[in-house]
Structure formats: structure tokens, C-alpha cells
Amino acid sequence: MSNTPADRSVASKVTEVAIFILGIALLIVVIDGLPLDVFSPESKSFFFAVGAVGIWRYTWWLIQALRSVWYNHRIFPRLRAEADALGEQALPPELYVLCTSFRIEPEVSFQVYEALVREVADYGVPTTIFASVSDRSDVDVITHVMDENGWPGNIELRYMFQKGDGKRSAMAEVLRAISRRMPAPGALLVSMDGDIRLEPGTLSRSLSFFSVQEDLGALTTNNSAIVTGGDATKEWYDLRYAQRHLVMSSMSVSRRQLVLTGRYSAFRADLATQPEFIDLVENDHVDHWRFGTFKFLSGDDKSTWYWLLKNGWRMLYIPDVFVSGFEELPDRKRFFHSTTDLMRRWYGNMLRTSNRAIALGPRPMGLFTWWSLVDQRLSMWTTLIGPTVAILVTLFIRPSFIFAYALWILFTRGLVTLILAWQRGRFSPLWVPLIYYNQVWGALLKTYVSFRFNRQAWSRQGISAGEPNDPEAVKRQRRVGHVLHGFACGVLLYVLIISTGVLQPPDLTSLSILTDGSHAEEQGKVDDRWLSLALADAPEGGSVQLPAGEFRLDADQLVSNDGADRPRARHVLGAEDDATRLIVTPELARHLRDSRGRPIQGTAACPQPAGCTLELEQHSMRFQDLQIQVDTGQPVDAVASVTPQSKEKA
């Protein structure tokens, strides 16, 4: 495996040490705040939703990781040995390079073309470079590069000026120009962006694989980033490339990919110059029942990938060859805004193409690749289950669950980071929060885009497309998108609310209260279950403040065989003026003493400061500012249940 370029952008050591210390501090806080009874039966909805879905998601991710390791350590070394053994026999008769540049800084363009010219000159194959540029300054830069390198004899240079309506039309013009030259059998085409620098040996170490595999239609390589921006931006790009490496390595086991990256990909020239291929690059579109017919603005790498996939050609990822991209956020001072714009464009390209690829079925691509495409559609919803359930359970059942979820995040994302770091060759503690950000915020963006994928924008070129010209039609489309998106999110939220027990179907007693006015006085009573949870969630030795109303308490709520929901509160305070009444069972009353230390048999007041005391096995508790009444046999079902919000009404 070759070394990563030395000038790859990463965060400073100071930032990484600071993030590591903050992570350790957060872990200590989470463990300290984690209740001892967090694994009680009341946690089952939380752990089923978060744990079961997490097991499914991370099992799939682990399969991808294992396939990646298998490819990099078993399959690819054999392929590399076969390719290297061919030597000069692997050289194509001629090479074409398509390089598109749009308003790239001259300093970057100089480095890109200098590396390209030197690489092509060293490769030694007759090569035609088609420079698709946007203005005359690009020509001056490229001419200067050629002067500096003495105009190598094996290089022919052609300039083509872009129309300014997007990268697709520029690529199509170059591909047509190449087709008119009638490439020789076995000729190859390299398609690359104008901000990608080829590292030494890129051509010789990647293009030789076409001679090894006759059914190989295209390949792409590993990436590194030279980032202009802060530490978070640098690690965000490096993390994305680490994740890209894992997935592309895994997919190469099946000799397929999920995208042919526009940064640098190589094709057989006879495929890339076919009229259908060129037409798809230039005029790729979708026919949608709601959006009608609209052309794709960006995502040319998805169109080239789809054509090869549909026609049964194999694809390959070369992990030991790096190309370096000059990366910069659209607005380097606004990390969240800029990363959102980029992810929205990337995910839009994926969603616009995946449906038709899934419709092809497993036959032309294999079952694993097909299911990977299906999983892209599912993962945007399953990723949201964990944080949604954590919020619901924390707000409505037990606040302490937030600590359990935080521990789950630190553990799972930390493990993912270690596996990525092992394969990438470096570790950064910034990856832990950035992975969670990419997953959760990325999933939200995917669901948003999936109902609006006709809306397209390209920040660098300042163009947008996909929506009708009629303003009223635009409003109508957007309104329907909002409704459908809201409905889908509402269904997911409703299912999770029911499954977590936040919302329960009404029981017979509740229905009778709603339909029978004679039960109006029952509205002031509070669910005894809420009291159990309140006693368990209180700090060790702390107190619980009860609102006005009636509460029921029995020994089963204080003692259980497995220690679940062990009450930690030691003081229970009622509302003023003895407006709080605690109804206890005779069994529990035997362990209660009033303010004078006498057993409670009927009704007793528990004023401050002495109050009433309870001594039951290991539990010691004091009740103040409330009345205690021993239950004389009233059926439990006759006690109405209302939510603790009655405290506010009181």
C-alpha cells in the first residue's frame, strides 16, 4: 500500500488533544449520571428501539468493514501483483484526459496541470489533454505549465471553452470531440476535476488494471484532501474520505461501486464515446409523477456509473493510489451552512439515481450491490429512530435515559472511529462528534431532499434547476412536498410514541372518566406509576415534590425482586395546606409512623418538621406536608389516573 500524500490536511495537535480531554470529561459525566437501575424493565422500549435498530445498522456496517478488510488484504494484493507483472504490456495505445475547470484559482490550476503534465510525460503514452476551461486566464496558466515542462512530445493539448450552463454540457462536448478522433482499440479516458492533483505514479499504477480485467469498464482511486479552512473542516473532509475508502473497498469485492467519483475516474474510451453514454451525461433526467420531467444539474458521476451498471460492466477501486483534492467550503466561515449545502447536493444526486438503479434488480449488479442501494433509502429513516426515541423517553418517561443514550453514542461512534482509523492509518478524536453529525443531520437532510429532489443548486457555478418556470407551480410543488414530508415524519413519530409507551391507548377507567361526569372529582388524582418513577429518578438521598391530588403507594412500588426502580429519594414533600393525600396499603402502613412515632391505622397528618417516617427493609423515607390514609379496601381500578400536569392546574 502506498503512503498518503504528505501535505494532507488534518487538525492541529492542540485541537485534537483538547477534543480528547473534553471527550474524557463527557464520558465521566455520563457514567456518573447514569442511574444504577437504567437496565430496569422500564428501559425495555428504549433499549429495544435503540439497541435492536442499532444492532441491525451496525451489523450491516460491520459486514461492509469486514469486506473492506478482505479486499484490501486478500483480493487487491493479488490484483496489484497481476497488474504490475504486465509492465509495459499494460500501456494503452493512447490516452485521453478530460479535465474540467470552472473559476479555479490560478495557484490551484497551476499545481493541478503541472502535476498532470509531468505525470502524462512520465507515463509515455501518446496523450491528448482536453482542458475544458471557463476563461482566458486558465489558458495562460496551462500554457505557462507547458512552457515550464518543455512541451513534452507525447502530449497534445486542446482547449474547449465552457458554455457556463454546467459541467455536464462541458463534458459532453469533450466526449464528442474525442469520439470524432476515433480512439484506437484499447484506448483509455481519464475524467478529472480541475482541482485534483495527480500524485506521482497515478496513471501507471491505476490504468494497468484495464489490461488485467477485460470486463472492467471503469475504476476510481483513493482520495486525500488539501483543505483551506479550520480544523473541523479538515477533519470533516478526511473523515468522509475514510468512510469512502471503507465502502468502496467493500463494494470492490463484488466488482461494483455505488458511484464513479468525478474527482478522478478512468474509463475505456470506446465506452465513454458511445452516443448513449454521452447523451446520458449531457441530458440525464427523470420522469416523476409529481415533478414531471426535469434534467439533472450535477451528479455526472452518477450518470456514468448508472450507464456502466445497467450495461453490466465491472468497476474497481484502487486503494493504494491517491489523488489530492483542493477542498474548500462554499463559505469557510460558516461550517454548518456550507456542509449542509454540500450534503444536500450530494444526497440529491444519490436519490435522483438510486430508484432507477434499484429497479434494475439484482441481476446486472449482484445481490449485495443491489441491497446496498436499497439500504441507502432505508438508512435515512432508521438513523433517526435512535435520537427520536431517546428524546421521547427522556422527556416523557425517565430523564435519566439521556445518559444511557449518550453512553451509547460515545461507545458506538468511538468503535466506528477506531475501525476507520485502522483502515485510514490515522486517528482523530474529532471524528466521533463529526460521525454523529454526518449521520443524524445527514439523515434529516436525506429525508428532506427525498421529497424535493427536483430542486438543485451548484454553489460554485451559481446555477440552479429542476423547478417549473411558473411561480404558482413552484409554490404548489413545494407545498405538496412539505405535506408529504410532514406526513412521513408524523407516521414515524407516531409509531415510536406508541412503541415507547409515551402514548398509551385509554383504558376502561379513563374512558369512563371521559364519558361520565360523576367522575369529575377523580381528575385531581395522579397516576401512582408516575410516583414510582419519580422516587426512582430522584438523586440519591434527594427529595420529591408532589403536586396537589391523591397518590397511591404500596410495598411493591418500593421493593422488587430484581432491584429494578429502586427508590433513591429520602424525602417526599406534599403541596401546602395538606392538599396532597397519599393512600397506602395496610401492609405498607405497618411500616409507617406518624409525627409522634405511633403506627398509622386510619388517617394521619405529616406536618413539618417531624413528618411521618417509613422503614421498610433497606428503604428509609420521610413524608412531610401531606396526609396519609390507609386504604380500607377501595378497588384499585376506582382510582382515576391523570398525568402529573395537574400540579400546574393546582
Automatic annotation (TrEMBL):
<dbReference type="Pfam" id="PF13641">
    <property type="entry name" value="Glyco_tranf_2_3"/>
</dbReference>
<dbReference type="GO" id="GO:0030213">
    <property type="term" value="P:hyaluronan biosynthetic process"/>
</dbReference>
<keyword id="KW-0812">Transmembrane</keyword>
<keyword id="KW-0472">Membrane</keyword>
<feature type="transmembrane region" description="Helical">
    <location>
        <begin position="402"/>
        <end position="422"/>
    </location>
</feature>
<keyword id="KW-0328">Glycosyltransferase</keyword>
<feature type="transmembrane region" description="Helical">
    <location>
        <begin position="483"/>
        <end position="503"/>
    </location>
</feature>
<dbReference type="GO" id="GO:0050501">
    <property type="term" value="F:hyaluronan synthase activity"/>
</dbReference>
<keyword id="KW-0808">Transferase</keyword>
<feature type="transmembrane region" description="Helical">
    <location>
        <begin position="46"/>
        <end position="70"/>
    </location>
</feature>
<keyword id="KW-1133">Transmembrane helix</keyword>
<dbReference type="InterPro" id="IPR029044">
    <property type="entry name" value="Nucleotide-diphossugar_trans"/>
</dbReference>
<dbReference type="GO" id="GO:0005886">
    <property type="term" value="C:plasma membrane"/>
</dbReference>
<dbReference type="GO" id="GO:0085029">
    <property type="term" value="P:extracellular matrix assembly"/>
</dbReference>
<keyword id="KW-1003">Cell membrane</keyword>
<feature type="transmembrane region" description="Helical">
    <location>
        <begin position="17"/>
        <end position="34"/>
    </location>
</feature>
<protein>
    <submittedName>
        <fullName>Alginate biosynthesis protein Alg8</fullName>
    </submittedName>
</protein>
<feature type="transmembrane region" description="Helical">
    <location>
        <begin position="378"/>
        <end position="397"/>
    </location>
</feature>
